[in-house]
Write a structure and sequence with these properties.
Layout lengths: L1 E6 L5 E6 L7 H12 L2 H6 L4 E9 L2 E3 L5 E3 L8
Antiparallel strand pairs: 1-2, 1-3, 4-5
Length: 79
């Protein structure tokens, strides 16, 4: 799961999270999230809010054999 931060037209900071399946590593997950965020439909859904390129966070979601879902601590948060 990759979090990206946007600034709305009113100046509010908003975080959007993208579920990236089967990325080989954190860098690939971040690239895929940026590619998804850049798609016209996605930009329109965010009302064309501008992305803060200096901030992101990457977490891993795992599901145990017993069905317990866990989200890791952020691997590389930026502020």
């Amino acid at each position: 799961m990759v979090g990206l931060r946007y600034r709305s037209a009113a100046g509010t900071l908003i975080r959007h999270y993208y579920l990236i399946d089967e990325a080989r590593n954190a860098e690939e997950a971040l690239r895929q999230a940026h590619a998804t965020a850049a798609q016209p439909a996605e930009r329109c859904a965010r009302s064309f809010a501008s992305m803060d390129p200096s901030w992101f966070e990457i977490c891993t979601i795992t599901v145990s054999p017993l069905g317990v879902t866990e989200i890791s601590e952020s691997q590389r948060p930026h502020s």
